[in-house]
Structure formats: structure tokens, C-alpha cells
Amino acid sequence: MTTTTTTPKNSDALAARIEKLAPQIRKIAAGMARDAMHADDLFQAGAIRILNTCADFDSDARMLMHARSAMRNEITMECRYTLRVDSFEDNQVGSSKSKDEESDDDAFGQYKVQGQKTPEESVIEIETLEKIQEVILTLSPENQNIIRLLSVGKRQADIARGLGVSRATVCVRVGQIAGALTASGLSLSFS
User: Fold this and answer.
1) pTM (global) more than 0.90
2) Is the distance from CB of 64 to CB of 26 less than 8 angstroms?
3) Which of 18, 39, 77, 183 could make an SS bond with 29 (beta carbons 3.0 to 4.6 A apart)?
4) How many CA atoms lie within 13 A of 75 on its CB side?
5) Residues whose CB is less than 8 angstroms from the CB of residue 143 and which lie 6 or more positions away in sequence, other chains included
6) CA-CA distances (angstroms) from residue 128 to 31, 37, 54, 173, 176?
7) Rounded Cα–Cα distance for residues 26 and 19 (Å)
8) pLDDT tier, 5 (very low <50, low <70, confident <90, very high otherwise)
9) Which residue spans within the chain are E strands per DSSP?
10) 110: DSSP letter
């Protein structure tokens, strides 16, 4: 039986790293946000992800990747919530929208702010995510575990070490996962 020891996170060191990376994280957030307040929310999501998933010895690039991923997730969740609320309101009996208001909603012009998706693009993204989830559920438990670890930013070498298998085994399993996704008309890139 192999026991794994993990070193405790140095929160102060991570906080200092986040402070050092703050201008870059804010720049990423500003590029994705619809306004300044939204940029602050995205910055916060990125900083929290770094605190929760990174170690103080991780590279700046890795930390920025985690922050960017958290920001994308935040935006996706906002889109899902908006779509659910909108579809609920559309299904209410006795809608009071005039035909002019409905035609304005179909124009999608209001959604073409930099970095913001149209409702149509959001629906496509959600459908793709659901299809990916369906494929993942058909994978073996071992492959599901590997894709879960990849999705949180773990490297293949780290996964192999954590599972007690060779890196080649993890590479083969990643190939199996990619094959299953490709067979379903999907593609994801794994590093």
C-alpha cells in the first residue's frame, strides 16, 4: 500500500502570487466581461480558483490558465441561468410582449458586445457540453477519473504519479477518451 503525502498549501504565498499576477488576471477579466463590475466578479472567480487548485510552486502560466478557466466557467453558468430564466418567462401564460418586442429579441444585436455570446451560441455550447457529458458517462470509471483530473488542470505526468501507473498508461487512456469523443463528433485537446 502506497501512502501519498501532500504538502499543505501556503495561502500567504499564493495570495502574494495572485497580487503579483493581478494586473494580468484583471486584463483577462476585462477582455471577457461586459462591464467593469462584471470584470471584478470574473477576477474574483479567477483568484478563488487559484487559491483552491494551485500550489505555491505552480508556474505563473498555470495559475493564469486556472484563472481563465474559472472565468469561462462563470460566464457559462451565467448564460445557463439566463437561458433558464428566459425560457421560463417565455413559457408563462399570457405573455405581454408585443410583436415589435418579439422581433427585437430575435435580432440578437444586443448580444454582440465584445466577448458576449448570442443566446443561439449559448444554446449550442450547452448542447455540446451535454453531449460531452453523455460520452463521459459511457467511459470506464478509470477513464472518467482521468478526464476529471484533466479537466481541473492536472498534467498527465501528475495523474500517472497520483494513480501509481506509468505516464504511457495515462497517455493510452487519454487516447481512448479522445477516440470516444471523436466517434461522437466531438473533439477536445489534452496536453
Assistant:
1) no
2) no
3) 39
4) 28
5) 173, 176, 177, 180
6) 24, 29, 28, 22, 19
7) 11
8) very low
9) none
10) G
